[in-house]
Structure formats: structure tokens, C-alpha cells
Amino acid sequence: MHTPVSDFPPPSRRIAELAGQCLDNIDGLIGQWMEMINPVRSAYADRVPDADFRSSAWQAFELLLRTVAQLPVPVHIAGVSQRVGEQRARQGVPLDSLLEAARLDFRVVWAALVQRADEEDMAELVTSAYHVWEAVESHVTGIMTAYQRTVLEMGRRQEDERRMWFSRLLESEGHNPTVVRNAALALGFDGAGTFLCAAAPAAEGSGLHRAATALRAAGAPVQYQAVGGDAVLVVELGRRTTWQSVLVRLASTPCGVSPQTNGFAAVPRAAVLAIATAQMLPPDAHSPRLLEDSWLDVLVRRAGDFGTDLAADVLGGLDSPGVSATEAARLLETVTEHLRGSGSIADTAAGLYCHRNTVQHRFARFHELTGRDVRRPDDAALVAVALRARTAAAD
Q: Most buried by CB count within 10 Å: which residue of 70, 240, 257, 305?
């Protein structure tokens, strides 16, 4: 088997010796490094105590010098790159600033080697530069990998905590002030804010998720979460995030939308109403549906078997002997047209392309068979619910 030959010369024993000498002056190297990174560090100096900064720098320089000197590296020193990456991620230090500071290690170590080298060493020093750079890049890579892994873990934990508090909020139904306060804090919401809730079946949750991502990018506090078999989106409204602007984001998403509500304690109920509205979406829905347009369907669904009983009680007379299926269908068509229109007999007649007296006669016949007069508000409301219940039962 052919063994590939490296394009780089082997590490120089003389350069290794010089690196070993530098181990006696790590304090001096740290002083030089601190001066160089002060402009970089200023953005996060308040997050990393000086003692922590110097301790990690000492270990980092010992790691680099021992690596170049080809000396054994103690276990506690070998793990410094990972520790720095993890700790700085938890301290909120920007990754680009962190890596910029770490790469300055090369300049400090290289300057120390040049200072100790004589003229005869310079050629070997130049050919060994890649060993120094390789040691620094290995350290930088270790920092970056640990930093990114920690950020991901922190993000997952934070998201888990957000989901946990939102679930607790829903379970408490907003009645526990401590849960409401802590949930608002964990989710980044103003407890006294104004909120909008939308819900969609899990299969349509991607639309809500896209809206949540866009709203969050625009600076709106948002929570998107699976609740049972549905996806729920909660948005805190503000000057730039209005009820209308949220609906624009949801324009092509089949979902249920509750009225906006004041106070975070009211969010659990708004979520329930949004889910109830979403559950009434027709199979061909392709846009949001407001609760205000869905109340009858929601009430019928919540009524359960009572809805069936209501339909039988209110509309049962249409199934009486002597009433043909054609007559019953005509009466239902007339009543339905009237209830979904303006309530004007003239408008109902126009919608059915018949004379208003015909409509009046049909209303009278409906009243005769069912005991309900759709020209009376109470009867009209009851018949409207009964008609929805009858349709739901048929479906």
C-alpha cells in the first residue's frame, strides 16, 4: 500500500525547544494578548470576569506551546478548547468575537518564538510556521464546535422550557396568577398585552409555523406549539403587529382565529376557541376562518347529542305524514335563505326568484308544521342552530 507523503516538513526540534522555553513566560504572553484583544473584548467584557478570562487564557497558551513543543498535554489542559467554547456560549459572548480573540494566539506565540530565535533558527522557524498555525486552528475549531453544540443544547432547553410553561398555562386555564406571570416571562410576553390566537389541524401546522417564523423575525413575541392534535399560534399584538397584519401572514393557511384578547391570562380560553373554530373548517378550506363567522357550527359541535335532539325537536314536524320530501326541501330552502340573508322578506324572495307572498305562505306553513316562526328573533335563532345541527348530523 502506498503511504502518502506530507507536503510539509516534520516539526523542527529546535522550534519545539523554543516553544518549551516560552512555557516559562506564559504570564508575559497573556499580558501581550490581553492588550491586543481589548478592542474585541470590550463588547462582552462585563460578561466574563477577569479571573475567568486569564485562567482560560493561561490554559490555552499552555496547550498551544506544549503542542508545538511536542510535550505531553495534561488532561485538564487538553480540554480547554471545549470548556472555553461551552462557557463563552453560556455567557453570551458573540462567536465571531470569541474566534477572533482565539486566532490572535498565533500572533502572540509566533512573536515569542521569533524573539527567542537566532539567525540560524529563522529558516527552521519559517518552515515550521504551519505547525504553530495548525495548533492554533485546532484550538479554534474545538472552541467553535463546543460553542455551537452548546448553543443548540441551550436552544433546545429553552424551547422545552417555553413549551412546558405554555402547557402549564393552558392546563391552569389562566386561573393561577403565578403560572400566568411565570409563563409570560418564559415566553417573552407582556402579561398585560393584547393577544391573538390561531389554530390549525396538525396537517396544516406548517402554515402557522411559517407565519410564526416571519412574525418572530419582524420582532413580534410569538409562541407556536402543538396542543393535542392541533397546532396553536399565539401572537402578542403591538404597534407594528396588528390583528390585520397577522391575518395577512395567515392568508393562505386553513386555520381558526379567535378574537383578540386582553391580558395573558385570557390566552388559554382564546386558544380553546381558536381550536374549536379550526375543527369546523370545511375540507376544502384554504384560508383563515374567524370565530365570529363560526359560532353556530362551534355551538353545534360542542352541543354533541343535544344538537341532534334539538334538530329533531325543532324540525321534526317537517317529517310528519302528509309532508312530501319536495315540500320539506322547499320550506328548508326558504327558511335557510332567509336566515343567512338580511332578514328582509323582499330580499329572501329575490334570492329565491319568487314573489314575497310565496315566501310568506311558506313561512306560515313552516310555522304550522314546526311551531316556529322565523320572523320572530327567538325562533329564528333556535331554527338557525337546529339547521346547523341537522346538516352536521347528515355529514
A: 257
